[in-house]
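TA notes, week 10

Several of you asked for a full example with nothing omitted. So below is the full record: structure tokens for the whole chain, then the designed sequence directly under it. When grading your own attempts, check the secondary structure regions first.
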């Protein structure tokens, strides 16, 4: 390949950056630029390819095309590889590496594909010279690229070596560093090169380890991103043009020296002092510290600096996204603070934010004039751009009336429940239960923590709106209850079927205890759909505790054994707890132990399908508690359970185990439940739902509850 000979080159880039890369290569090379399935292709000279390797801020890898084929087969791949004169690219004594991607019927593993390509190359060289190159996966003289994709075969030489996003300046990083070429894409999308030439300033108020600051400073200083790399893949390639490369390096160094003298101010700030030190070390290593600097300051404390002469320009940040639902409420104030700073201190600036969450972006309070989809690693994100001007400032959102109404209801409920909670000495109770239609939440207090369940919104409510209300509600709740958001567990409540009711939700293993009428119970707000304690059954647990002395107690569908613990605390002669879940039975044993009891002959815990156990048991009990799920189709059950359909079976079989003077407490949370008339005829039935629903659940009827006894003989 001569200096003036043209060839095709393929260039890869991060997902979402393709259009920007086409513009960049066209600007760098004056070459003909087109689309390639993994990025961009252009036709130009080897010097053009070198220029892309040295100056592209967006590319990952550059390949010199050796050939391609529309015939996609094992034989076609062998023919394509064998058609190349490898003596033109690699010495017989040299080293090589093959990167293979894709699949063929005969090649289902990329390592096998790489091995076959390598074999065909070295076989050709050995036949000609009697010796063959060796494989060096770490530092080869030549890296061969072979790919099967889009019904075509591609074969080329990789010119870059390591991906071009590795500039060579990276020091220690923060917990979630943004890749260098994604940072550059954001800056190019914001027209930062032109802004820097006009002398505008740059800010990143959440800079982390400083990738955006560093990339902005390099662009402002006309600093070629490839100058910091120690080696490129083409430097030991036989067709490498040393003179062309040296010329480009010399030109880049001259531009860097001139650019350093004229670059505008570039500043970064972050609450983590450790990453700030790393960011400044990077800027010093690059020789950019005179006009680019990072400071240890949180977003909450930030004010416009007076020791730098700033010209309104560009503020870009990559704030936390909150990938988990429970993390997002913490970030609401962060995004609101972004909007406050922009409105109050940065009039005339351009604002750019990269986030994966549209709800959080809305909290900034500005209408974006442009949005661009980008991928930060595997996370799909959106880059929002805003103008900060008087019109935007005037349109800043006022306090949301619905959020204020929700806040006021929380204050009212807390005040109304305070005396009752203190009198009953409760640590766990319901504070709010969908009191306001716009905020369909159930909010429960557990000591110094909160459990928030969002009922699935109607289909007429857009998902983003429902999410926004949830986050705003949690933010208000944190204020009213004076608790950090980290103490608020947030879940979406949907109907659970089968084994899902036993599956872990968010494995944190953070359990703690609450007390209820002197009984200590373990709860977990994060790991499962429920917390381990059904608060709406509090009244009946108290009744069991008050009436259990000397009795034989059976707790069916026992869950975590709260009724068992109350019965033990009330002096029960014996307890038997039955459940399908080993996890919850172990939890029930813990609850018994917390109150001084121990599993044994008088306190049995039985792992079984309750329907089957009821059919087979011959024991007798004085007090039976049965609270079955509305529906279950667990694979561990012999049959499915539907409480409306099967309640007669459950009651009849439980009554067979009940002593003549005993009582069955039967409850369930199916709102449409009705007890079959035959059961009223067969037994002495009393509907005690009104007594069983505690004060904090009177807004709705969360369950139905019956006391069932044998009729007098």
């Amino acid at each position: 390949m001569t200096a003036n000979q043209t060839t095709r080159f393929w260039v890869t880039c991060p997902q979402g950056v393709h259009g920007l890369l086409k513009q960049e290569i066209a600007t760098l090379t004056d070459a003909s630029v087109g689309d390639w399935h993994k990025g961009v292709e252009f036709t130009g000279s080897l010097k053009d390819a070198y220029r892309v390797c040295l100056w592209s801020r967006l590319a990952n890898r550059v390949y010199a095309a050796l050939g391609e084929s529309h015939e996609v087969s094992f034989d076609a791949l062998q023919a394509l590889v064998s058609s190349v004169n490898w003596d033109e690219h690699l010495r017989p004594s040299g080293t090589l590496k093959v990167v293979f991607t894709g699949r063929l019927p005969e090649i289902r593993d990329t390592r096998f594909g790489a091995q076959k390509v390598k074999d065909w190359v070295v076989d050709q060289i050995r036949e000609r010279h009697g010796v063959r190159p060796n494989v060096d996966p770490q530092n080869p003289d030549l890296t061969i690229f072979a790919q099967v994709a889009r019904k075509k075969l591609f074969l080329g030489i990789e010119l870059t070596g390591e991906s071009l996003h590795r500039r060579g300046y990276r020091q220690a990083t923060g917990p979630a560093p943004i890749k260098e070429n994604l940072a550059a894409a954001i800056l190019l999308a914001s027209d930062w090169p032109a802004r820097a030439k006009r002398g505008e300033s740059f800010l990143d108020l959440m800079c982390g380890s400083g990738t955006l600051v560093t990339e902005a400073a390099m662009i402002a200083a006309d600093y070629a991103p490839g100058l910091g790399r120690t080696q490129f893949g083409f430097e030991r390639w036989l067709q490498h043009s040393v003179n062309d490369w040296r010329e480009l390096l010399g030109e880049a160094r001259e531009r860097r020296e001139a650019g350093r003298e004229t670059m505008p101010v570039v500043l970064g700030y972050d609450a983590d002092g450790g990453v700030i030190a790393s960011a400044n070390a990077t800027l010093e290593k690059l020789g950019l510290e005179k006009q680019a600097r990072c400071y240890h300051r949180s977003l909450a404390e930030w004010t416009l600096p007076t020791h730098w002469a700033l010209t309104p320009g560009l503020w870009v940040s990559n704030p936390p996204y909150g990938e988990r639902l429970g993390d997002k409420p913490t970030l609401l104030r962060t995004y609101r603070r972004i909007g406050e700073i922009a409105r109050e201190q940065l009039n005339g600036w351009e604002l750019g934010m990269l986030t994966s969450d549209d709800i959080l972006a809305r909290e900034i309070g500005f209408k974006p004039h442009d949005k661009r989809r980008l991928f930060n690693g595997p996370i799909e994100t959106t880059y929002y751009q805003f103008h900060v001007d008087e019109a935007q400032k005037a349109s800043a959102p006022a306090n949301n009336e619905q959020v204020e109404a929700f806040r006021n209801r929380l204050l009212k409920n807390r005040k109304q429940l305070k005396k009752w909670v203190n009198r009953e000495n409760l640590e766990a109770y319901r504070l709010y239960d969908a009191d306001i239609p716009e905020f369909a939440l159930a909010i429960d207090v557990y000591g110094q923590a909160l459990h928030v369940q969002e009922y699935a919104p109607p289909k007429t409510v857009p998902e983003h709106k429902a999410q926004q209300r949830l986050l705003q509600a949690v933010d208000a709740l944190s204020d009213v209850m004076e608790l950090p958001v980290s103490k608020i567990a947030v879940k979406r409540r949907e109907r659970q079927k089968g084994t899902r009711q036993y599956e872990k939700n968010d494995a944190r293993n953070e359990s703690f205890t609450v007390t209820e009428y002197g009984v200590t119970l373990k709860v977990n707000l994060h790991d499962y759909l429920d917390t381990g304690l059904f608060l709406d059954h509090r009244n009946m647990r108290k009744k069991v505790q008050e009436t259990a002395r000397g009795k034989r107690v059976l707790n069916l569908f026992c869950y975590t054994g709260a009724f068992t613990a109350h019965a033990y605390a009330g002096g029960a002669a014996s307890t038997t707890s039955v459940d399908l879940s080993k996890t919850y039975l172990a939890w029930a044993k813990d609850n018994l132990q917390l109150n001084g009891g121990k599993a044994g002959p008088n306190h049995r815990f039985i792992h079984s399908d309750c329907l089957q156990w009821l059919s087979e048991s011959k024991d007798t009990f004085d007090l039976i508690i049965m609270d079955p799920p509305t529906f279950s189709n667990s694979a561990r059950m012999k049959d499915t359970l539907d409480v409306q359909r099967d309640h007669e079976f459950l009651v009849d079989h439980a009554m067979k185990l009940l002593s003549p003077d005993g009582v069955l407490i039967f409850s369930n949370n199916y709102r449409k439940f009705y007890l079959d008339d035959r059961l009223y005829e067969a037994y002495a039935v009393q509907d005690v739902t009104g007594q069983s629903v505690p004060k904090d659940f009177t807004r709705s009827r969360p369950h139905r509850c019956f006391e069932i006894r044998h009729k007098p003989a």
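The CA atoms of residues 511 and 524 lie 5 Å apart. Use that as a sanity check on your answer.
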